[in-house]
Amino acid sequence: MLSKEPYKGTRDFYPEDQFVHNHIFGVIRRVVEGFGYQEYNAPMLEETALYAAKTGEEIVGEQTYSFTDRGDRQVTMRPEMTPSFARMIARKRHELAFPARWYSIPNLWRYERPQRGRLREHWQLNVDIAGVNSIHGELEVITTAVDIMRGLGAKDDEFEVRINSRRFVEAFFADILGLDETRAYRLAKLIDKKAKISEEQFAEQGRSIVGTPLYPLFASCMEAGSIDELCRILPLEFATHPSIQELGDLFALLGQGGVGNARFDPTIMRGFDYYTGVVFEVFDKHPDNNRAMFGGGRYDGLVGIFGVEPISCVGIAMGDVTAYNFLEVRGLLPKYESNAKLYLSTGPGATFEEVWAMAVQLRGEGIAVCVELDNRKLEKQLKAADKLAVPYIAVIGGDEVASGMLKLKSLTSGAITEIGLKDLPAFLQKN
Amino acid sequence: MLSKEPYKGTRDFYPEDQFVHNHIFGVIRRVVEGFGYQEYNAPMLEETALYAAKTGEEIVGEQTYSFTDRGDRQVTMRPEMTPSFARMIARKRHELAFPARWYSIPNLWRYERPQRGRLREHWQLNVDIAGVNSIHGELEVITTAVDIMRGLGAKDDEFEVRINSRRFVEAFFADILGLDETRAYRLAKLIDKKAKISEEQFAEQGRSIVGTPLYPLFASCMEAGSIDELCRILPLEFATHPSIQELGDLFALLGQGGVGNARFDPTIMRGFDYYTGVVFEVFDKHPDNNRAMFGGGRYDGLVGIFGVEPISCVGIAMGDVTAYNFLEVRGLLPKYESNAKLYLSTGPGATFEEVWAMAVQLRGEGIAVCVELDNRKLEKQLKAADKLAVPYIAVIGGDEVASGMLKLKSLTSGAITEIGLKDLPAFLQKN
To answer: How many CB atoms are located within 10 Å of the residue A118 CB?
Structure first.
């Protein structure tokens, strides 16, 4: 027997599900296009080498769908979009207008145990800007994320932008903690999984990497809730470090631009190995959905790995599953609405051809119409129209064809409106 | 060195390419939603068994991306959408409102040698209706296809709907030609590849299947251009066969509904094994693009293979590559337009923060604005804005901030309009 279920860890999108999906990505499109972002797309299969370089070992080795094609190429179903974005920018490095503001909403694949908020196939908004060197790039992509949250219905006190800097982390690890590259990498990975392990585990592993004498300094830095606080803990001269200056500028710009819910968070690392500057996450503060909805940062080195002149990039991404969970816990899921405004039924004294001709005419005037095709019992038609959330039904009989006057029945209130075919489009567009 | 090229047989969609893609599928959405179709989607991976049953041996065995996942499941990257559609209908057989009018625009994968109009990854519109028993189902999906062609800019005499019936073919093969199932299957496959082989090859293979005495009857039937012509060739009693009656009804309904460019074509077979009734293709008549753009038909048996009560289905599909080729040869490709209406630049006496605040305000009023983030030389900014097809640029200096009056420069005509910030949204929405 053939299975009726979708493949493990994936979802069927029935029309009601697709409606929510379209609502989420409709808001997103409006917002990002308002900043001048252009849509792009890339193939869903890429050669595995594209990810091996910079995505991070764990993801490529254990969490991707990779296989050998019939032409003996190693290919991977894309687990993320940024490598494809960088490849495309590199491919037309000398033809494109910069800055390139691009967005995409690809389907992505991860091979992992499905759990709340993590599926094997998901969709993800990617917003990236290539060719901006200043912190204004970070300002812009963070502002798009904040405007998307607002567009989805979030109030500013319901979410938070948490910002850190890989340049700061690097300088802190090397110059203050005196770590070599290997230990620095291990410490970054430890911080990245801080939320998933116990405080004791974190302290124990942290001590073993940082060393006991410096661990208290490290631990108190990890607790700093602002740049000012951080500067009070660290040596005075560190306050003038370029990464600290840059973070200060970014917070000032965000505040002046109306983004008041951003704060410094030294534990934000982002998993991927390609980030080089500021990194950030947007957190829903709801206790049932306390997780990153957006994540991103600056990755100035990625385009250069294709052997072209490097170009600075900043990007941010959001998955559809976390967006859906956000709308759900906040009670913001939209109510399903039908595209069709009218269900047309053939009544006594009229032919199907006459009703079909009426539908052709109404569609020509921009009205979406469902026509009853099998002339079922009226009761069945009413039930179907109601289940499909079509707001009105009209039964076209001989009288209606002759007079051009329709009895329009509202399927929500049951009220009946008599209306001429001529006036119908205007009425349905309003109601 | 990492490759900058997309994986073989696939395409990168740069913003200008995605713009054309969005144009094509934007027209399509408007049309099919006008008939009350609802959007759905399904996972891009399905278990291989889903295709093995009914898609046709050649496609599953040789032309799919199939592999074993880490949990030892045989999976396939979907080569077509109809099996997923049928699976989803079967899964909620007892909950859905019928008829279910559904459409989707999935990315699909075929493992084959890339050639004009045939790529490894492509997108495809799928329009399907489940739960309609009468020929009105065929009328509706064929009409959506015709309206899409018109929506894309085709004139009715530039394309043609070619219609056949598997029920007719079956009766013709069995009752008139006396073929058993195996020979009938071979003959159907031969007709399916008629356009790809020489007339001699067709005749030779046709004779070997049909037999020499009956071959002339078969051959002249294959030339019939209308039902009437067919009925003059075949025995008189065949004119009353239900499949012939049904085809006659369909042509009458199409004609009455304004579709005058449909004709009977006994060579239309459609490759897939699941069709059970009327089948059709929409052909572009342009000599450089003389190929099927849409294909579809009735497949009443497919939902039943999932072990639920069967339900009648009719569907039609169109690929993005053939749609693109059609627009190209007809000179109907749309000109790229930017989402952003305005490029804002910081001039002498103003700060970036002041310009950014202006952009925030304009976006709040629904105007899409690109802001210059790196304060490059004005010449560079003009070049970038022009390449991005942003229609206007304004340099905001101290005077502009103080007076609220902007000098808006058109990047197409070079004309300069002085305009107040307050009046800008209305101006840009109009121009």
So the answer is: 14
